[in-house]
Records
---
Amino acid sequence: MFDPTAVAVVGASQTKGKVGYEAMVNAAEFDGPAYPVNPSGSGTMFGEPFVDSVADVDDAVDLALLCVPGPAVPDVLDECGAAGVGAAVVYASGFAEAGEDGERLQATVVERANEHGIALLGPNTSGFVVPESSLRCSFASGVDEIPTGNTAVVAQSGGVALVLAFQTRRQGRGVSATVGLGNRANVGFVEAIEYFDGHEGTDAIVLHVEGTDDGRALVETCRDVDTPVVAYKVGQSDVGEFAESHTGALTGDHALYEAGFAQYGVPTVDATDHLLDAAAALGDSPTPDGPNVGVVTAQAGPGIIITDRIQRAGGVLPELTAETRDRVGDILPGITYADNPVDTGRPMPAFGEIVTAVAEDDNVDVVLVYELFEQALGFPVEALDGLAERVDKPVLFATEGIEADLAEDRAALEAAGVPVFETPERAAEAAAVLARYARSHGEGVDAEVSADV
C-alpha cells in the first residue's frame, strides 16, 4: 500500500470536481505509473489510456484507488483480487458509520478483501500521502504541497490527517506520511503503527484516536514498537453518537484510554499543534534519561510561563548543581537569576555559553531555551549546533519576532537538528512530553491496562 510500483485509479474521471478526477490528478504525480480505470472513460488521462478493468492494465498493479460508490466496491475488489492487486483505498462512505445496511456492506467488503489478501484502507477516508515518493493517494486538493518530514501521521479521521499535514507545512516540518484510517476495515491503528515503525524515514508516529473496539491491541502495539508514539484521544466530553456516525468509532471512556496510554508509555496531548510539537521533540532529539528540564530564558516573563507550564504538564525543574551555578555566575556576573530557570535578562553574546553550561549539568535531562529575537545578536546557532548529540539530551528552542528577520537563524537552528517552537506554551508542552516519555520508559512500565479500554 505505502510502497507500490504501480497504481490504478478505478472510477477515474475527466470531469473536474469529481472524486475520480481529483484522485487521478494527485495519483499522476506518483514516481511510478498511474492508470485510469473506467469502462465509461475514453481517450487518455496524463498519457495513460483508459481501460475497462484493473485486469486490463498491462502492468502489475500493487495499489488500487477505488473512486466508486459503496455498493460497487465488493465487485471491484473481486476484479482487483483476480488481477493480483495487494492493496486498495476505498473513499466512499455509507458503510459501518451509516447504520445496519452500511454495516452489512462493510462486512461484505472486508470478507472480499480478506478472501483476496487485499490490505484495505477505509472505507470512508480521504486516503493517504507519502510525500517522499510523491504518492498522493487522496482526492484532496493541495496535497502536492505537503513537504517530506520524519513524522508519520496516523489519524482515524481523514480530515484530521490532512489538518495535521497542512499544519506541518506551515511549520516547515513535513511528514513521512499522513494516513486517514476511516472505518478501519482491515487496516487500522495496529497495522499502520507496525508498518511505520519499520519505515526508514519515520522517527516519530502521532495518532488521532476517536475510538476503537480493541484498545488493548492499540496500546500494546504502541508499547512494543521502537519508534516514539504520541496520541491525541478526542472525546473527553460526550461526542459518542457524532463519532460513531463519522467513522463508526466506539469512543469508550476517555479516562480509560488516557490511563491505558499512560500505563504503556504513550504520552498524550489535547491539541493538534501539541501533537506535532511532541513529534518534533521526540523525533528530532535524543531520548532523555529522565524528566528533569533545565530552562534558559533571555526574558523573565516567558520563562515564568514555561516554568509553570512544564511543572503542570508533568515535567520537573531540578536545582542546578553548585558547579553549574558557579559557572553561570562566572560567565555573567550579576545575572538576573542563576538557578533553574536561568534568566539572563536579555540576549547577549554569552547566551550560548549559558545554554551549554545548563546542558552539561548532570541534574538536567532536557534543555529548553527561550529567546526573543534581537537582530544585532541573532541566535546562538554555533553553540547549539551539535550540542544535543554531544550531551545526549534534547535541546529545544522557542522564540518570537519578525518572521523575515529571524528566518535565517531559525533555519540554521532547524538544520542543526534543534526543534524550534513559536510560543512559550508550545515549547513547554513539548518539553513536558519528553519528560513524561522518559519517566514512563525509564521505569519500564508494563502494567496491565483495563480490559474495558
Note: Residues 424-442 form the longest helix (19 residues).
---
Amino acid sequence: MLLTTTEATLASSLMHVLIFSAAACLSFLHSSPDSSVEVHSQEQEVVIALGSNVGNRLHNFDEALQLMRKSGIHITRHGSLYETEPAYVTDQPFFLNSAVRGVTKLGPHELLRVLKKIEKELGRTNGIRYGPRPIDLDILFYGKFKISSEILTVPHERIWERPFVMAPLMDLLGSATDSDTVASWHSFSKHSGGLFESWEKIGGEKLVGKEGLRRVLPIGSRFWDWSQKTSVMGILNLTPDSFSDGGKFQSVEAAVSQVQLMISEGADMIDIGAQSTRPMASRISAEEELDRLIPVLEAVLEMPEAEGKLFSVDTFYSEVASEAVSKGAHLVNDVSAGRLDSNMLNVVANLRIPYVAMHMRGDPSTMQNSENLQYDDVCEQVASELYLRVRDAELSNIPAWRIIIDPGIGFSKKTEHNLDILNGLPTIRAEIARKSLAVSHAPMLFGPSRKKFLGQLCTRPAAAERDPATVASVTAGVLGGANIVRVHNVKDNVDAVKLCEAMLERRRSLA
C-alpha cells in the first residue's frame, strides 16, 4: 500500500506543494490492503459524498447520517442538496446528491469499512457499476493524506469530472480557506486556483439550476428549487397585540377567511403566528400559544385551497413547533434561531423539516435596547452572527439543506441599519460565503412588511398605511436576492414580485 501526506503551502495562489512521508503523522502496519492494522492517534477531518436514487432518497440520507454519527463520525457541515441526472448509466431515476464534512478517529480503511457496512444496512447490494442504489457513500478527502491502495483511492479519483460531486463539495468550503487541512484539499486540484478553479473548469455555478443539477430544499412532499420563482409568504397573526393587525384574526372563521383571501391573491406560503414578536411584546406560554394556534392550523389545512400550498409556524418554542408539525405544518420559522428555547434545534433536527433561522439580538422585549443596536458594519455583523446560529443548527444535526436564512430586518436594528440591509443583501450572502458556501446558497426570507422604519421614513404612523413602502422594500429585496418575501398585503406584493422576476430574467438573458 502506498500512502503519502501532503502539506500545502498555498500562499495566495496555492502554487507550491510540499510532499513528505506519512510516517511522521500516521503509521500503517499491514499484511494486505484488506487486513491492514491502522494506528492513529488524532482526529482527521474528512469529506464524504452521499448519493441515492432508489426508494425514499431523502430518508436514505437521513438514516445514513444517523448511522455515520453512531459509528464515530462527528458531522460538522453539510452541503446543499442536489437533484441530479444520472451519469454513465443514464437509464435510471434521478439522484439526490450531497456531501458532509466531519471529524473521526477512524483510520481511512476502517472508515471505508464503516461506510460499506452502512450501505449494506440501508439495502445496497452488488448491482451494476454506476447503476441504481439506495445509498452511495464515498470518501472524497481524508485529512491531508493522499491514499492509494487496492481498495481505496483518496482523493476520490473521479471528483474532478463530476459536477454532482463537485457542487456539494464546494458547499463545504468557504471562499476564505479556514484551515491547513482545507488548504491541502485545494492543493490536490490540478489547478493553481485550487478546488475553485477545478469547479469553474467544469462549469461551476452556471451549471446549477439546469435540469441536470438543481439545488433543492426538501419541503412538504416536494423538492423545491427556490431559484425558479420568488415565493410570497402571507402573514396570519392570531394575536391580540401584533403591531399591524392584532386581534383581527383570532376566531377560526376570520382566520380561515383571511387565508382563503391570501391564497386567492397568489400566496405560495402562509406563515401562522400565535405569539407577538413586536418590540416590547409580552411573552405568553407555549400552552397559550398552542391554544390559539392549533384550532386555526387544523382548519386551514382542511381547506381545499390549501392543496399544494406550504404552511409555516412562526414560533420560538420547541413544544409549539413539534405540535404544529404533527398537525401538518411544513416548516418552522424561528425569530430567535434557537436562542430562546434550548430544545428547539434538537426538536427541529428530529422533525426533519425546514427551519428558518432569523437574526435577532436579545428577545422581543430587549431587542431594541441600546446595547443590541450597536453595529460597526451591520451587514457584516448580521452575516457573522447569523452564520454562527446556523452553525449551531448544523452541529445539532439540522443539515444546511434544510436551512432558510433571514437577516431579521426590523429586529434589533435602527432605521439606518434596515436601510443598509435593504441595500446589502448580496453583501450578507458574500460575508456568509467566506465561511460556508452552503449557507450562503440557502433560500433567503425577507420580511419588511409594514415595519416601523417604513413608517418613520414615510411619515406613516399607522401600520396599515405602509403598504406602498412595503412594496418598494420588497422590490429592493427581490432584486437583491431574496427568495421568499413575507407580507401582510399579498395582492400588491405578488405584482411587485412578478415585475422583479421579469427584470431579473431580462438581465440574465442579456448577460
Note: Residues 2-215 form a domain with the Alpha-Beta Plaits fold (CATH 3.30.70.560).
---
Amino acid sequence: MEKMNVQPATGKLGVLCVGLGAVATTFMTGVLMVRKGLAKPVGSMTQYDKIRVGRGAEKKYLHYHEIVPMAELKDIVFGAWDVYPANAYESAINCEVLKEKDINPVKDELEKIVPMKAAFDRDYAKRLEGDNVKDCATRWDMVEALRKDIRDFKEANGCSRIVVLWAASTEIYVPVCEEVHGTLAALEQAMKEDDRRHVAPSMCYAYAALAEGAPFIMGAPNTTVDIPAMWEMAEKTRMPIAGKDFKTGQTLVKSGFAPIIGTRCLGLSGWFSTNILGNRDGLVLDEPANFHTKEVSKLSTLESILVPENQPDLYTDYYHKVRINYYPPRNDNKEGWDNIDIFGWMGYPMQIKINFLCRDSILAAPLCLDLVLLSDLAARAGRYGIQRFLSFFLKSPMHDYTQDEVPVNHLFQQYVMLKNAIREMGGYEADEEID
C-alpha cells in the first residue's frame, strides 16, 4: 500500500475539555507529570501499544508514533469550560482522585488552566449548581460564544490545531427527533429559534468545534453527535467526530468477557450489572432523567455481541439489567458488580461473578489522551465523519442507524479495527491475523 498523505503534527495542539472535574483534571495532571518524567502514562494505547506491520521476514512490531505522525505530549496545551470557576489545580485537589503529592509538582501549570464560562442549561443537569455560566439568549448565541472561545484560545496559545473533548456530566436523555436532528439545516434553525427541548448544550459545543475546524469527542452517553445533522456537519467541515461515552469499568469488562461466552458457545440466561459511584458524575446520574441516558448506552453492549438471530438456542430472551447508585463515600472509586447466569451442556446452569473495584478517572484519563491524539491524527489524515476505528475506547460506538448498521461492541473486533486504521494511515496492509 502507498502511505496515506498524513499531514505532520507540527505546532501546538490545543485540547479544550468541556468540564474541569475529576476526569479532565486527572487527564491533565497525568500528561503534565509524564512530560516532566515524574509519572508513566499507564493504560494509554498510543504511548505503550505496539502493532505488527508486515508479514514473514518483513514482520515487525512498532509503536503508533513509529507508524504514523502523532502529536507529542510536549506540544499539548490545555484549556477548559466549566460551570464552577475553580482552576485545574483547585479542582484536582477538590476531586480527591490523585494524592496531593502527585499534583503539586505541576501546580503552577494547573493553576494557569482557568475554565471559561460554560454554555450550560440547568434543565439538562439539575444536580449541578455552578454559576460560571454564559448568559446566552438562544442556543445559537451559545454556539457563537463557544466559537469565539475556541478562536481566542487558539490565538492566545499559538496553537496550530484544536481538539474538543467532552469530559462533563451526562445530560438528560434527548431522543432523536427526525424533524430537528435529521438535517443540518433543521438543527441550525432549531438553534436560532432557541429550541431548548431538542438542542442540548452539548450539541452547541460539538457544532462550534466542527465549525472552527476542530475534531469533537463525546465522552458521555449524550446523543450529541449521534444524529444525522451532526454527521452532515462533520462531512461539511471535513472533521472527525467520535463517541459516545468513555469505556472505563463495567462496560470494558462486559465487552471483553461476553466474547468468551459467545466464542465458547455457552448460553446466557441473564446479566445483571450494578455500580456504586460517588463523584460528580454519580451525583448527576442520581437524577433519573440523566441515568436513562447512561442506561441506554450501557444496555447496548451485549446485544451486538451475543445475538439471538445468530444463535437462537443460546441467546434468546436473556435478561439484561443495569443499575448505577450514587454512594458518596466511594467518591471516584467506583465498584461494579456483575452477576452472569449462563448455561452449558444439556442446559445445566452456571454462574459467573465479577467484582471490579476500579478508579473511574484513572481508567478514563488514558482514554482521553488516546482519543485526543487519534482524533487529531484522523483530521491530519483527511478522515472525517464518524471514526469507527475509535470504538475500542467508547462504550456505545457511533454507527449509522438510519442504514440499519450494527455497532461493533466486541472488544477484540474493535481492536482489529483500531490496528487496521493505524496500519492503513501508515501505508501498511490491513489484516485480521491474531498477534
Note: The chain has two domains: 12-246+361-425, 250-357.
---
Amino acid sequence: MSQTAIIAPKTILERLEILADAAKYDASCASSGTTKRSSAGGKGIGSTEGMGICHAYAPDGRCISLLKILLTNHCVFDCHYCINRKSSNTRRARFTPQEVVDLTLSFYRRNYIEGLFLSSGIVKSSSNTMEQLIEVARILREEHDFRGYIHLKTIPEADPELVARAGLYADRVSINVELPTVAGLTRLAPDKSATQIEGAMTSLKDSIVEAKDARKRFRNAPKFAPAGQSTQMIVGADAATDSDIVGRASTLYGSFGLRRVYYSAFSPIPDASAVLPLKRPPLMREHRLYQSDWLMRFYGYAPHEVQQAAGADGMLPLDIDPKLAWALQFRGDFPVDVNRAPRERLLRVPGLGVRAVNALIAARRQRRLHLADVGKLTVSVAKVRPFIIAEDWRPLLLTDRADLQALIAPKRSEQLELFAS
C-alpha cells in the first residue's frame, strides 16, 4: 500500500504518537556543548539549565530532556533501511510548524522537556521541508523568546542558504551520513549523494568557524550552532566492518570538526527490502563502537590503533572492550608504573578511566601509590593488576599468561561498563 493511500490521523495525540515513535531511530540527539541560557530575571521562556525528564546527557553530567519528534514521516525518498521510505506500509502523519511550536511550549510549561529535537521526512522537496523546520525554530526564538535547547536535523539536498539559516536558530545542527561507505549509501539510499552530504557538512563547518571568529572580534555578532554539528551512521545494514566504521568516524571528526558521531544498530523494519539483512546486529556491537569512539576522543588512541583491536575480519570483539583487546595484543607496552608513568600511558591501562588516571596523578604527588590505592579508583582491580606496577605490586609473569583474557574478562552482566571510568 502506498503512503498516499493511508489516511493521516486527525488528533494531535495520534500524530504525536506516530511522529515521536518514528523519531526514535535517530540517535544523534545528545545535547552536549550547548550555550547555557536562562530565562531567570527576564521575560523569555525556556532554559537549558532546568530540571525535567532526562533524555540526553551532556559531558559535564547535566541531563537535558528533549521533545524528539518528526515534522512528518511522509517522505519522497526510498531509502531501503528507513521505516518512513515512500514504499513503506506505515501510518503517516504530519504537523504544521505552528503545531510543533505549541507542543514544545506546552511540554516545557509542564516541565516535561528543556528543548526540542526536530527532524523530518522529505515532503514536496528538500528545500520546502527545510523551510518548515527552520520556521519552527524561528517562531520559538523570535516570537516566544524560547531559550531552551534546539537541535535541527538538516537536509543536505536543500538549498545551502536554508541549511545555513538553521544554525542561526539551533544550538546544534546535524546531517546524517547514513552509512559508513559510499558503496553502502549508493546501494541502500539511491536518492542520497555522499558528495552532497559532505558538501553540506563542509558548509556548516565553515559557517561555525566563521561565527566563532566573528564573536571574538565583534561582541554582538550572531551565534551560529554554538553546540556544533553531529552525524549518525547506521551499523549492520551493509557489509562495512567495525574497522571501516572507525576509519570513517575518524575522517568525519577530522574533516568536519564534528562534536559527535553517533552509531545506530540497524533494526529490521516491516515490509523490509530484500537487500537488507534479516537480523539486526548485536547491540553490543553498537556499544563497542561507542567505546572505540571514546578511545579516539578522550584516551589518545590513533584510529589505526583502535583498528588493531579488531580481529582479522575487521570486527571488534564483543566479549571484551576495545581497550582491553588492544592491551592483550600489545602486552609489550605493559606493565605501566602508576608512580612514574606519564598520563598518556596510564590512560592505556584497561580498567582505568580518565577520572581515575587524573586522581592517580594527583595522589602520587603526595605519596607512593600501592595496589589498594589503585583499587579504590576502579570497578575491577583484577582487570588492572596484570597491566600495572605499584609500590607493593609487580605482575611478574601474569601479564604474559596465555589465559589472561579468560582471567580478567568481565562477566556478561558487567559488559556495559565504559572502561570503568
Note: Residues 325 and 360 are 23 Å apart (CA to CA).
